[in-house]
Amino acid sequence: MRKAAAFVFRLLVPSLVSAGAAPAQTAAGWLEFTARITPTAARPEPVRQFTFYILTKSYRDIVKEAEEKDPVPSRDAFIDSLKVSPELRDWLKGHDTLDLTSPELDKLLAPDDLIHVPEFLRAYQRSNSGGTEHPEKYERLRKEYLNALMKFIRSHPETVSGVELELDGVNPQRKWAAILNERRKKVQLTAPDLAQLQFLAAKADTDLDGHASVSGLAPGDYWISSLNVEANAGDMRVHWDVPIKIEAGQTTRVELSNLNTTEASGSNP
After folding, report:
1. What distance in Å separates the CA atoms of residue 236 and residue 249, rounded to the nearest whole number?
2. Which domains occur in the chain, in start order?
3. By mean pLDDT, which of 9-13, 142-146, 240-244, 247-251 is the weakest?
4. Closest CA relative to residue 57, chosen from 247, 223, 242
């Protein structure tokens, strides 16, 4: 009797295992997609032999995560590091610009700014040499000179134009732009690595028709991404970060085109 029971048990175990494995085997989904780019005034062209990445998180959000790990330096801390007068540092903190050579600068400068910020005063004097009548008359008494100059600026606001041409030597914009550019390069390097190390579900290369497929994807939300690599055709340079949903036992089909690029949605991570 025991031998018979053992024999029946041995027969049932494979069936039970198979029954338990069946849902797992049918749980996966499939993805098929085709990528085409349409250049200006031309026909669509397939994106051939191009690697796409199937991510569990939007690449745009991955870029944001990389940016958060390397935040933008404090603007005020940057201004405090500048070798300029305290008055100019205060002015920069109170205005939404760092470019002192901008042609629009004269619109931001009040007469008080030109008098009380040494760099602005020197720039104004250089750009308006001879702008006041007998300026040497006021050099002996600086206070009287500055008062006279203030009145002159208020009555001749057009003389402020051109001050920005004299401020290149103290302009912090170039240094600030270099800091931001260095950070941008660092994010461009780290974001693709972060995407592949933590959020990569699969990747696939397109064939000569721009077609690719992926099997064995667990049901859920994914993104078809080109990371930071441009796909190009003619005059078009594009990236993709397209959300998709994989259903158990079903094939999801997607067309990648100009219409669903990140450029079309107004962003380019």
Report:
1. 36
2. 27-70+179-260 (2.60.40.10), 83-171 (no CATH)
3. 9-13
4. 223
